[in-house]
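Task card 7
Instruction: Convert sequence to structure tokens.
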Amino acid sequence: MTGKATLHLAFACDARGETIVRVREQQPPWRAVRGFRNSSGETLVHLHNVSGGVLDRDSLCLRVEVGAGAHAQVTTTGATRIYRSRSASQTATQQIEVHVGAGGYLEYLPDQLIPFAGSRFRQTTRVELDPNASLIWWEHIAPGREASGETFCYASLAFGFEIVACGEPVGIERWTLDPRTRPVDSLARLGPFRHFGSAYICQAGAPAAYWRKFEAEMQPICEQHSGSEISWGVTSLRAHGILLRGAATRGRLFEKSWLEIWKAAKWYLCGRVACVPRKVH
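Output:
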């Protein structure tokens, strides 16, 4: 049986101006752990997959709405595990749809995605930002279960991402990794690195000069956290944001450097301290 499931979260400001979250729809294996107020002013929600991971027949949909002026932080309770596909015809999928209203703010900070040996997974994401909406969107891809010797042993991994700000597309990416026919560790791809990820940092409506200055501020920080085992880069989008990309030989090194980069980027973006999401078990 195909595991089709939807989780729909809606963040909004209450009468006191505080952000509350409502679960509009929640189907197994999705579960949203209730909202917590963090010290930097966002309402934090944990995404939990009660099956322990993504199965080959799963077709998951995540919808997140952040209302005007609401501040939200979304994370996971742990790494997203993509289990082995039982046949070549099965590909697990996840569709993410996000809308951030005027003056709203969203941080999407999931733990790493770990594709198991023989797994097939495709994720598509579309983010829409209204005027003055802000976004920090982070994703970290692991090479597999390294402790079990499953480095780049998955069958396929495909991602599509689109971000629209003030009605115009400002970032579109499509990529597919197929380690069996195109080795991921070739010099034309990741080379010596194993973990990779990216962060979109956006504010719809901010002028181009702001983003050029933002990029210039982040460049030395990226260089500071780059070396023989890790590399970071930053570039401005065509409008409304910047993009950071990184790759590292080790997952812990990657996460540690991202934490410092995130702190600097969030302070520059909105003048608030980065608050590491609490985990629930």
